[in-house]
Amino acid sequence: MNKLKIPFTAIIIVIALIIACKKNELRQSPFDGIDGKAMVKINYSCPYFSKTTAPVIPNRQVWIRINGNIVSSPITYSTPYPGGGLNTGGNSFADYLSANPGMNTISLVMLYVGDSTKRGKDSVVLHTTEVDLKADTYQTIHFTDTASRIQNVITYDPYDKPDSGWALYKFVNLIPNSGPLDLYWGTTKIASNIAFKQVSDTFRLQAGIIANWSLRKKDSTTTLGSVYTGNASSVANQRVFTVYARGYDSLPSTDVRNPRVSLLYNR
Asked: Is the pLDDT of residue 25 over 60?
């Protein structure tokens, strides 16, 4: 009987090709695939003042409660949880929490620290709201503004990633006192006249083409706040992002609350 002989070098080539394909696959959230649940991300973008020079005012640590239960580690301005993004806190994954659909109570709280008798209890409740979460839907609840003015807006996030060679985006304006904004990618206006708490249509950009991200007031030629320097991660192949404007208008670049562009990971 003749035996089929496969050269060892051919086997190595096939294995290398399989590994290369795996490296180019988009990582899926470990929370994916929970039928009937609401998939939720909280974008904590409440621009409280902080500074790292003397006298230091630390960036306050905040925890998230859903229906009374702590569901996060401590996070700071500006952090999407779970997961993260670019020009944000967090990591580089597109994770979501799983919650029951329907009305849910979401709170932003500061816990007691240093007092073991009060451990796990709220020192300050920054904000509490009721949110109607949709089943079988990926959704991000964006919190903005401070003190009694804290408010939120929900974006519904695409489930499907774009075709290879493209990255997918939408834009939301979280700057309370900015007026309508235009979003620029390099010199190209990619979202126009987006008012506070409004969300743009979905748009896509060619993966791998790098340009800076910036804000302008509607039809202005002047950049608002700080430019986010473009990089390969912001146009990564088949990734899905929500771009958001954060902070307050009319603050200097040395203030952490001045207008900035951030991108959070959806897929």
From this structure: no
